[in-house]
Amino acid sequence: MAAYHLDSKLAQEIVARTMKIIDSNINVMDARGRIIGSGDQDRIGELHEGALLALSQGRIVDIDDVIALHLQGVRPGINLPLRIDGDIVGVIGLTGNPGQLRQYGELVCMTAEMMLEQARLLHILAQDSRLREELVLNLIRTEELTPALTDWAQRLGIDLNQPRIAAVVEIDSGQLGVDSAMAELQQLQTLLTMPERNNLIAILSLTEMVVLRPALNSHGRWDAEEHRRSMDTLLSRITERGELRVRMALGNFFTGTGSIARSYRTASTTMMVGKQRMPEQRSYYYQDLILPVLLDSLRGGWQANELARPLERLRATDNNGLLRRTLACWFLNNAHPTATAKALFIHRNTLEYRLKRISELTGLNLDNLDDRLLLYIALQLGEQG
Which helix (H) or strand (E) holds 378? Predict the structure, then answer.
């Protein structure tokens, strides 16, 4: 028997379509001779001995009135084996006078086999898609490229030597019900696949997927700006196409062992940090958020607690946040006093007073590079908290 199995849903679809060809009841039996599709619903589940004959003998079996009396679950008609690649997967039966039905039987059988072949091909494509997704999930979760993964990729026609960069695509939560979420994600997956057929895509959850994009351009070079433009174009196309609101985050490009897993981790963290710091934006890039992304690994650890101590002392006294906003603006303007004072609409003397006050409260000397760096990192961690 063929590896593909005829199911009741497809059997009933075959019945519905073929009964439009001929004015006769049609039954579809599986490889065990059970009726799994019929124009007469009362016959579903019955064992059809005429089908068993067609299955065992591998030929068309005519059943007349006399023969029908001696067989179980059989009425006069004609039974034709259904084949895929030469293997019998079931039987289609037409109820009526065998002599009158034979001229239609082969046409009905051909239609049914065409539907079977189409279903089998779709099954193979779906299976291939699932295997590709599972491969992607393994690639983003492991640092080691095992022989099994390499063999798996080769069988799917995927070149693991091709450099790739990870992007995370996220649908805003709350937009979709559970019933429609997967369908929407699959449509989005198709949209991400079709323009750039070499993308590898996997759905991570009902609101998130990962895309492994070829990293090098047509000249064999890594071009971060080219990827940025491509992502912005893709985001615009997705937005224009439907009502879904999506965010996209592009990770860093790595080479060598575990490069895909590392790229995915940077993309995932870039998404998280980007949403915290710039919730109004829809696209985030690792290159724009390198420091906060790298610092994210400190979150919740003792190092982060130690780094936060000076800022906590400042926060305890700075009730309205004036000094923290001043400090953030000062760093934003690269510690340039004139630019900072201008941005805050204050006099330079006022700025100098505030900076001196910050030094007193934090116990850090803002003229010292190490102290300045400690305070800057503390601010960065504070924005992610």
Answer: helix 369-384
